[in-house]
Amino acid sequence: MKALNSFGFPVLRFNFRGTGLSEGEHDNGKGEVEDVRTALDWTDREFGKPMVFAGFSFGAAVGLRAACADGRVIAMAGLGVPVSPIDERAYDYEFLRTCAKPKLFVSGARDQFGPKAQLEKLVAIAAEPKKLVLIEASDHFFEGRLRELREAIETWVRVALGSGL
Questions:
Q1: What distances in angstroms separate CA 108 from CA 94, 116, 120, 127, 140, one per listed residue?
Q2: What per-residue confidence (pLDDT) applies to 53?
Q3: Topology of domain 2-164, per CATH?
Q4: pTM of the entire structure?
Q5: Do you find a cis peptide bond into 50, omega within 30 degrees of 0?
Q6: Percent of the chain topping pLDDT 70
Q7: Which one of 21, 61, 79, 124 counts the least CB within 10 Å of its CB?
Q8: Any idea where the domains of the chain sit in the sequence?
Q9: pLDDT digits (tens, 9 = 90+) for 39-61
Q10: Phi and psi at residue 107, in whole multiples of 5°?
Q11: Stretch 9-19: mean pLDDT, rounded?
């Protein structure tokens, strides 16, 4: 959030249904994709600018799906993208095969929900352009490595969107 905001992008950060003080009930990824679409609609109405989507963990899993299909989103970042099933959740990223938007994937090299080999397979199937950054000695939550996470995002924004900034 802070990395994108430092480039002047307006940022909307929200909790999914049933998380924190938000209303509603968790819908195992179905309704949450709609939550992201609603957030994109609101952001478009408020700012009317091309958007960069960034999501963390479950937010990346459902948000990438919504953002890929949305023409207002010009680039996407998935941080701590889960590739191993968590509880009853299984993730399907087939849509990335045809998603031609610039994509950044950032994960901790020790991410318990995104083992390196599985994440590399996911990124390999994704359409170009794409970039994978693994942060050494980091877990799923980037504990103690937020500076490296921010640097990865800032570097990617400069390269992927540099001419439009």
A1: 22, 8, 12, 22, 6
A2: 94
A3: Rossmann fold (3.40.50)
A4: 0.91
A5: no
A6: 93
A7: 21
A8: 2-164
A9: 999 999 999 998 999 999 999 99
A10: -145, 155
A11: 81
